[in-house]
Amino acid sequence: MELKVINKEGKETGKKVSLSDEVFGIEPNEHAIWMDVKQYLANQRQGTHKSKERAEINYTGKKLHRQKGTGGARHGSKRSPIFVGGGRAFGPRPKDYGFKLNKKVKTLAKRSILSARAAEGRILVVEDFALDAPKTKDYSAFINAVGVSGKTLFVVDGTENNLYLSARNLPKTMVTEKNQVNIFDLVNAESILISESALNHLESILK
């Protein structure tokens, strides 16, 4: 598949790039995408939930009353979960929700979503450029010029601080480096912009 390279004004530069069929032309594997997204979201969970159980409550351990003869239930401590202020029974404990996913599956997932977006015509290749200063107005003009709307992901080659700072105040817009592209951002984006240099890197690591 060939795509025309556009500049930051949204005009064709006369250059074309050939997208690798191994990365942008495979049959999408929806299960691999689902597994990768599931792992990504699981890794975002802190898992720091915790409640005190009866052994951790700083409360008297004195027996309330004698075992028998009171006409009431038998109790051994006010720390029991049935009392207000007592420990919680089977409460949540810290947990790591992450799980292992093979590297080949993660690579297949990225190939699949990129192939799906390419088939839908929602991938644009942009000529490398940089902004002189961090201005949201300049980045907004760039997005309008290339003619994309909705959630947009722009994959750039290196650390483009001005691009990042210019885009962070715009809703539904994200700029990320080529080494930090993750499956969640790719799936979440309605349009994917890729700089020429970043495209070469993506194809090299995903082949």
Automatic annotation (TrEMBL):
Pfam families documented for this protein: Ribosomal_L4 (PF00573)
Highest taxon of source: Bacteria
GO molecular function, one term: structural constituent of ribosome
GO BP annotations, alphabetical order: translation
Name assigned to this protein: Large ribosomal subunit protein uL4
GO cellular component: ribonucleoprotein complex; ribosome
Species of origin: Arcticibacterium luteifluviistationis
Complex and partners: Part of the 50S ribosomal subunit.
Family indicated by similarity: Belongs to the universal ribosomal protein uL4 family.
Keywords: Ribonucleoprotein, Ribosomal protein, RNA-binding, rRNA-binding
PANTHER family recorded: 50S RIBOSOMAL PROTEIN L4, LARGE RIBOSOMAL SUBUNIT PROTEIN UL4M
Function, in words: One of the primary rRNA binding proteins, this protein initially binds near the 5'-end of the 23S rRNA. It is important during the early stages of 50S assembly. It makes multiple contacts with different domains of the 23S rRNA in the assembled 50S subunit and ribosome. Forms part of the polypeptide exit tunnel.
Annotated region (Disordered), positions in chain: 63-85
